[in-house]
Target: Response regulator transcription factor
Amino acid sequence: MIRVLLADDQLLVRAGFKALLNAQSDIEVVGEAADGQEALTAVRAHRPDVVLMDIRMPVVDGLAATRRITEDPTLRDVKVVMLTTFELDEYVFEAIRSGASGFLVKDTEPEELLRAVRAAVAGDALLSPGVTRRLIAEFAARSKEPAPSAELAALTEREREVMALVGIGLSNEEIARRLVVSPLTAKTHVSRTMVKLGARDRAQLVVLAYESGLVRPGWLG
Model:
């Protein structure tokens, strides 16, 4: 079972998500929180696989709560999927840098929400349709001149190639088509690259691709 914690200051939103998630045979809601501080306490108590975290909450906002979760070594296996009302929320960029494994708008289709939860557990990142490219473009616009990265030395030439393709927003299937390999092979390359670089998920791999200079602004195509 995939254990999910809901963190949102709106009771009706939590109730709707809870009903949807608990209706799945492989997902159960193990806790709820109305603000970021409650979310932190609940995460430590329940150790969920995934936290659905609203960005705007009282006491401690979702962004700060996410950072505290992802920076805590004892909570490394907890994945956070951010939720917001607006697709181009001003905090999306910082949310991904803080370690969020996904980003969804609250009015997303139910199937997309379920896919995001399952993808996060699998170590993948899922962003709302249309967000990925804009997020990468925003990251590129804000990126400073990258410093030389010794970390990339640990990667094979193919792994660097795959990382660059992840960095421009391609899925495993798209990477497979680009490199003329199977989707499983592409996924294996992505997974090995993440392990070597210590990336929590694909979202962090995108950040590392830009910060290392492997991908530069203007490569979005």
Summary: The chain is about 50% helix and 15% strand. Residues 149 and 212 are 5 Å apart (CA to CA). The mean pLDDT is 83.
